[in-house]
């Protein structure tokens, strides 16, 4: 064989080898790459296992206590609210305005149940969504939440949950994404003043957060455009759960009297992962742990200037908890996935609250609170499956601790 022929053969062999190598790599990559959209699960092509926290890749994490110390170094005087820094949702409510609706839910996680909740929320076309905490879980990064919540990203305001502090990077990403400089803030929405409280940061009297909330609520009293005041946070102030009772007791001791003094109407929370709504509760100065129920018989048309309704809705997607105790000052307690929808009607003088179950087209709970120009409130019920525990003749349903409840033979527990 001549030298020129030998070179041609070698060249052909190299070309064929290269061609087959490229073809093999192409086929391999096609089979290994996940589909962007999976028709089987109809899940926006979002897979939580693809969203691991940077901690998994060696990024230094900090403990929750370290995060709280970092937060406490922020100069309070230089902080601004979401209303100041982000898209301003403040607006007036003209006399001929259409009805307004906003939605609240917590404990979202990032899974198929989360997607179902968000899909049903978007069907109602709310103007505002209140996040009641826990958008991340364990080592799943906030990126998964940011992607799955895109349909509501521009209308959501968040409270920080305990799992949002699992990693410092997660907490920082949440604050940055939602344009927050601190985890507690306030804003006006039509004739409602909202206050986001962080149950995960220091809130005792004298703390920066406590001073901010007290000053903010006092300031809101001088705003003639405000008729309603609603607080949202992660950990509930009143709970029937058998965990984190100490934090709930601390929250109610610090805030219940303060909130009532400054005219707060509703307190919305998550953390306890089922739905529960209380009767109108007033602060018990003799024993702050146990509330005074304003309407013992839960009558329709009950009128009062005092009392706050406490609602827990940690029901947006994370695994539901079993209901530990059925407490008599709750109108309803149900272990269902879903969310709260509020309609602001009657020129802003009436709030209609509904809890929508994601598994059912019907509403699980419905209640109405109306206010006149003086702030006098009237409550009415449209819930057919109310908690009958309050009719129990045994009045010893309040105990000083969970341990006493466990020892009690009270039949309602």
Strand order of the largest sheet: 3-2-1-13-14-15-16-10
Strand element count: 16
Largest sheet: 8 strands, mixed
- Gyration radius from CA atoms, angstroms: 26 Å
Helical content class: 25-40%
Distance between the termini: 97 Å
Structure classification: alpha/beta
Succession of helices and strands: HHHEHEHEHEEHEHEEEEEEEEEEH
Number of helices: 9
Which consecutive residue ranges, at least 5 long each, have pLDDT under 50?
6-11, 28-44, 52-88, 90-97, 388-413
Mean of pLDDT:
75
Percent of residues in β-strands: 15-25%
Which overall shape is indicated by the principal axes computed on the Cα atoms? globular
Description:
With 413 residues, this protein is α/β, with parallel strands linked by helices. 26% of the residues lie in helices and 21% in strands. The protein contains 9 helices and 16 strands. The protein has helices at residues 3-32, 64-72, 82-85, 112-123, 142-148, 168-177, 208-220, 245-261, 402-407, and strands at 100-105, 128-131, 156-158, 185-189, 192-196, 228-232, 266-269, 275-282, 292-293, 302-304, 308-313, 330-334, 338-345, 350-357, 363-371, 377-381. Strands 3-2-1-13-14-15-16-10 form an 8-stranded mixed beta sheet, with no helix packed on it. The longest helix is centred in the N-terminal third of the chain and has 30 residues, at 3-32. The model is unreliable at 6-11, 28-44, 52-88, 90-97 and 388-413 (pLDDT under 50).
